[in-house]
Amino acid sequence: MKVKTRFSPSPTGCLHIGGARTALYSWLFARKYNGSFVLRIEDTDVKRVNDNYVQDILYGLSYLKLNWDEGPFYQSNRLNIYKNIILFMLKKGIAYKCYCSQERLDKLRKNQILNKQKPRYDRQCREYCALLKKSNIPFVVRFKNPINGFVQFTDMIRGLICISNYELDDFIIQRSNGMPTYNFCVVIDDWKMNITHVIRGEDHINNTPRQINLLNSLCAPIPLYAHVSMILDDSGVKLSKRNKSKSITSYIREGFIPEAILNYILRLGWSYKDQEIFSINEMQNLFNMENISKSPSMINDKRLLWLNHYYLNNLSTETINSYFFTYCKSNKIFLDESIDIQNLLKEFLCHHNTLEEFISSYLYLYKDINLSNVDNIQTYCNSINIKILKFLYKKFFLLTCWYKSDILLLLKQLTKKFNVCFKNIATLIRIGIAGRKNTPNISTIIFYIGKNKFLLRINNLIKYMQSYILI
Ligand code: GLU
């Protein structure tokens, strides 16, 4: 039997860490067994679904290179399939129309809670719906859940799970507006798409017995289920789309690369000995259900930073360059050719944890500086500094070879001539060429910015200072 897994997000929020982990585990399981991986968008909850979320999910999965073999299928395009099966079920008597008003259901629920009973539908229409058949009253369709016996299944992570049918009520499979519900569509799709292994979050574990009963009623095969434990935030609260869970897109925007994100989410609930770093190939070979943890795991942004740093330093130069240029393009950062970005990356990327951190440390090489935005610039505007800068300009203008060593030598000569400490000269230059007081090694920055831009910016600083003194 060919393994077939699926990732079936509801586009009611962005792709977040928990969803991406479900996708990764399902993808790895399919890849490991040479099976196939299906992407299905569960968009029947029309009130909460949003196309921006669909785009976000597709973008996140593509960025992480979790390629799907079939789909994306949209449940909203499959309504006819669901409708026909519901008609069939009504005809066969395994589903029934329920005409109970919201008012009656509310009252029922209130009484049950008052009597310390589990709130559930009392199956009134299961017996009497035939009498109301021709009525115009709006109705929902309910599944005739077996009344006696048990449902049991062996969860691939949690082992045997057994639920009494007494615990389950006749759940709704079609709403009064004619739309089929999640619990119905998911069952029909898993069946019709020949899904063999359902890997999903443990928040769905209560749905599984209902879904198995439904599959049994349709004589459909039952897939194997694996319910992955939840992820907690750093204060121990369950992560969800609605709270602190960060979307994959925001990690991408911050400059995290696919290998690091995948490695990070892989380890949120799965382990192999003490190993921390897993290449994609290793993930595919080593991934198994046995090593998925039954207990919740906790997000740890420090570990993600560490992994990103590791991969930025250990992937091939071509791979890193391609991530870097894609990052710049999607963040609309335009790099001009005057800067030797390849060597800058080679030399300095190792000091940074993310692409964003790297870029923001060097963006001034590209972007013009607005000197009036520099903190306390007025304290630097004096005639001595202007004199130093004019001399510096002249000396650098005459420099014919633009080497780091020559640049450093010139700076040292300057400090001697004006009897000022190196740090002060460096700060002055940093303000002029970077618009900030901290940058990496000053001679290196002068070297990378290039002679023309360097002289232009020093000249601007002189002019700014002169005009400030005049005021
Ligand atoms: N659409 C569901 C969700 O986003 C997942 C359904 C499933 O995996 O069975 O939570």
TrEMBL record:
Task: Give all residue intervals belonging to the Aminoacyl-tRNA synthetase class I anticodon-binding domain.
Answer: 345-462
**Does Aminoacyl-tRNA synthetase show up as a keyword for this record?**
yes
Per the UniProt record, which EC number(s) apply here?
6.1.1.17
> Could you tell me what reaction this enzyme catalyses?
tRNA(Glu) + L-glutamate + ATP = L-glutamyl-tRNA(Glu) + AMP + diphosphate
Bound cofactor: record note: Binds 1 zinc ion per subunit.
The UniProt entry annotates the motif 'HIGH' region at 9-19
GO BP terms in the entry: glutamyl-tRNA aminoacylation
Enzyme class, first EC level, given as a word = ligase
Q: Which PANTHER family match?
A: GLUTAMATE--TRNA LIGASE (PTHR43311), GLUTAMATE--TRNA LIGASE, MITOCHONDRIAL-RELATED (PTHR43311:SF2)
Query: What is this protein identified as?
Result: Glutamate--tRNA ligase
Record gene name? gltX
